[in-house]
Every structure is written in structure tokens, then in C-alpha cells.
Task: structure prediction
Amino acid sequence: MTTPSLPSGFGTIDPSTLELAHTPPGHVDLLCDKPNNHRGMDIYEEIVKLRQTGRRGAVATIVNVRGSIPSFETAKMLVRDDGSILGTIGGGCVEADVWRAAREVMEEEKPRTLTFDLNQNPKYDTGLVCGGTLDVFIEPILPPALLYLFGAGHVSAALYKTALSAGFDITVIDDRESYANRERFPQARDVIADDFDKAMSRLTLGEAAYIVIVTRGHRDDMRVLRWAVQTPARYIGMIGSKRKTITIFRELQKEGLQPELFNRVHAPIGLDIGAVTPEEIAVSITAELIAVRRKSERELPHMSWFHRPGRNQSSDAEEEVPTKRSNENT
Result:
């Protein structure tokens, strides 16, 4: 048997905890937990563990059965982001096809349903007396969306409320204890009152992280952005005018940061809905966070000048375009 090749970024597998499950020659071998190593390990408990550790997975469930199949309705299989599995939906070619699809579901973060006709497709003939049809529903298991708010002023306080209601786990960072405290952010995952550089040095961000920069000044915004663009965060947004944004980008590039690092920065931040007050701006930013989280494919009115298609940054760099938003967000 051959060890399956895993997609890039899916990590490594500890051979001591895995074994190769049998599949017909010429098909992908699946990596399964050894029974002696998990002793009644529950799929639901493993899902919780994956999410708590910031990992991804996909759960495949047989949701409909017609005729005879080598499994049963509601049977489940969990595919982890390292390619290993827990549980089974019957083995063989069906399971191998579901495993491949589960990897794609993790990447696309969208569920799908597969239908297998064991009677009509000769590749599913394993010599068993099975001639039924089954539908398998595959859904992604994603880590919590972790939102890091740098700055604890009025915009941040309003954004905390809207983003919390949208399902984000929030960490607030500010160097002022009078702003960064549990009284203002009672349901935050964490509240850090410390120098920004010290706080950032203690943070380890993954691909499920969202960074919003709403500090009280350009200097702090630049400090945070310098660090943020070098993380794998899924979203980076910074409040402020177009001129401020261009100035900060240029200063950081003079320090040696590559220009392409700023391509994913949303600045000005949020969707263009005419927001003026901190509460309205918070709704605008939350809407953009949701769009990125759900991988919205439709055209949206982003405020960010740098994300508007057809614009040439170099030719328009000196253009002075007033915005309704300033950096007065304390």
C-alpha cells in the first residue's frame, strides 16, 4: 500500500498513531486511527477538540439509503486536516471518494452532497451483495473566527457588539487600561491592556484570524500594520483616510516590507454604506468581515480603494480623495 499524498498546508501525520485501512488496489489508502489508540473516541468530542485547537476537518454522514449498502443511514466519518480519519461510512471506493471530497470541502468551506449508485457503477463492485444507492452529506468543520481589535475606543466598542452577535470570538488590545477592560468588553475572549508591541509579541495568529486596526493614532496604526501584514491572518483592515493609508504603506515599504504584503489590506475598512457614526461604521466593518468569512462571491461596495478593480494605485497615488471617515476613533 502507498501513503496518500496530502494537500499542501495539511500538516504531517504521526505514523505511530495511524495505520493504513484496506482499499482495493489502485485506489487511495485511507489513514485511520488505530482502534487501540482511541478506545471509544467520539466523533463529536473530536470535532470540539479540532475547533478548540484551531484546526479544520469535515464530517461525512450517510443521510439517505435506498436498497442494500455496506453501512447504515446516519453512519459518520470525520476527516481531519492532516488527512487522518475517525469513523467509517463503509470503506472501499465510496469512502476513498468521500475522503477526497472532504479535503475539497475543507478548502472551499462549503458543504456538498454526493450520491453513490453501488449497482450501476462497476468501480464500486467489491464482491459484496450490495446494490443500493446512498447519499453522503459532507460539511466543513471550521475553527472559530478570531477577531483581534487593536484599539479600544468608540469604534472598537461598537464593533465588539456587532461582531460578537455575528459569531466572532473577540480579543481586544489597547495600551490604556481605562479603555481595555472587562467592564467595556465583558464577553471578549481576552482583553489585553499593554503596549502594542509587547502584546503582539505574545500573539500567535493562524488563518482563522481577523485583524481590525482602530487605534487612536497613525503611529500605533503603523506599528500594528507592520506586524499584521506578516501574519497569515485571513483579514486585515485599517481605519482612516486614503492619504493616511498611502502614507503608512509607503513608510513601511521604505523599511523593507514588500509592496505585495499590502495587497490584502482593507483600507479604508468596511463596506461603503455611507457610515458616519461609530455604530454605523461598526456595522459596515462587520458586514465586510462576514463577507470574507463566508467567501462571498458577489461584487460588494468595499470602502477600500486598494480593492477596487480597475484602479491603478501608482497613477492615482497622489490623488487627494476626501472620505467621511477620519482616524478620530478613540
Q: What stands out?
A: The domain at 146-316 is CATH 3.40.50.720 (Rossmann fold). The longest helix spans residues 92-108.
